[in-house]
Amino acid sequence: MAYVSSTLSNLLHQTAFLNLTWGNYLMIAVACVFLYLAIAKGFEPLLLVPIAFGMLLVNMYPDIMASPEETSNGVGGLLHYFYLMDEWSILPSLIFMGVGAMTDFGPLIANPISFLMGAAAQLGIYMAYFLAIILGFNGKAAAAISIIGGADGPTSIFLAGKLGQSELMGPIAVAAYSYMSLVPIIQPPIMKAFTTEEERKIKMQQLRPVSKLEKILFPIVITIVVCLLLPSTAPLVGMLMLGNLFRESGVVSQLTETASNALMYIVVILLGTSVGASTSAEAFLNISTIKIVALGLIAFAFGTFGGIMFGKLLCKLTHGRINPLIGSAGVSAVPMAARVSQKVGAEADPTNFLLMHAMGPNVAGVIGTAVAAGTFMAIFGV
To answer: Burial level of 317, CB count in 10 A (0-12/13-18/19+)?
Structure first.
């Protein structure tokens, strides 16, 4: 009888119920909210479902993220090895290759002024950087946090790893991916607040056709120019342009298909679950996390604002030929930010079609955020 009671007692003490803190229960609740938003509301489910489930797992079984030094048998937890590929910048770079293989750069080539709108939307990054310094973060931490303003999760993870901010990588990544997922909620109020009804109704002329040669030369030229100026951007910009070259060359359809589908989805699973698993209650529930989440929201709002205001300036300079709404797509959430520009424009005029015009600043924003990351790495000598 004593053996039975002892066995039952051991089993009871092995359950999570007796080992969880209030913080773990809070994070489990947050994970469930994220799952609800992803599944019921359709907010970027490819990102939120794996992130939320990783968050759920680590707060019930923390050892799933344990390093080999923390375990009795010298074997780390499953998601620890996934997370190492985040720290080593492998998964973010592969994500960029998949994005490149899925994206048509034609709208950016057809309307090069989109580069300027993409650059203007990086305002949030630099605003967040200085605010983070004011709030007490050191320079490298502030730089890693500020990239959230580009609404670019892979670049946020990449820069945090390169600048040695692994302890902040979880909150930074979750904030970046959360704001990417919430683009349809966060952006429209800002867009409507800083544009008039007449501006939102502006119809833009059809983009010129882009030749195959232009599409092939574009990733090659961009890689040479950007990587010569900022060699540290090569893992991101290089993989982005390699994926796009696969797509546009027309001679490696198998590689295009793999990069944009099978490989992309595998990487999303690994990256999403490992990012979510970095949000244990012990690591996530602290004042630094609250600051990071707040700074991320401010950065994202200012990025949207910067793109919109530059769009308004171009609208004036071109005598109403550019709809300012496409400037908000200068953040890097591809293609969701462009879709939001289309949606808000269509609300003002159902016959207005802005999607392809917005894709130019949207793609430029991806390049701009990578350049911003490379600039910070150059500043800190990484």
So the answer is: exposed
Three-state secondary structure string covering 334-353: CCHHHHHHHHHHHHHCCCCC
Inter-CA distances, 217 with 40, 109, 204, 343, 364, Å = 42, 10, 26, 32, 16
CB 318 within 8 A of CB 111: no
Summarised one tens digit per residue, pLDDT across range 64-109 is 999 898 887 888 899 999 999 988 889 999 999 999 999 999 999 9
Residue bearing the bigger pLDDT, 131 or 2: 131
pLDDT digits (tens, 9 = 90+) for 314-338: 999 999 899 999 999 988 778 888 9
Contacting residues for 76 by C-beta, under 8 A, at least 6 apart: 66, 67, 68, 70
CA distance 8 to 10: 5
Span between the terminal Cα atoms of the chain, in Å: 64
pLDDT of residue 153: 81
Report the alpha-carbon distance of residue 167 to residue 280 in Å, rounded.
12
Using CB atoms within 10 Å of the CB of residue 6, give its burial: 0 to 12 exposed, 13 to 18 middle, 19+ buried: exposed
Q: Which tens digit of pLDDT belongs to each residue from 246-265?
A: 999 999 999 999 999 999 99
For 25-64, give one letter per residue: b (16+ CB within 10 A) or e: eebbebbeebbebbeeeebbbebbbbbbbbbbbbbbbbeb
Structure tokens at 166: 């692994």
Q: What is the pTM of this model?
A: 0.89
Dig out the tokens for 252 from the structure. Answer: 């490696």
Which segment, 163-177, 287-301, 305-319, is predicted with the most confidence on average? 305-319
Q: Which of 378, 382, 376, 381 shows the shortest CA–CA distance to 143?
A: 376
Whose CA is closest to 183, among 285, 26, 296?
296
| Side-chain-facing half-sphere of 372: CA atoms under 13 Å | 35
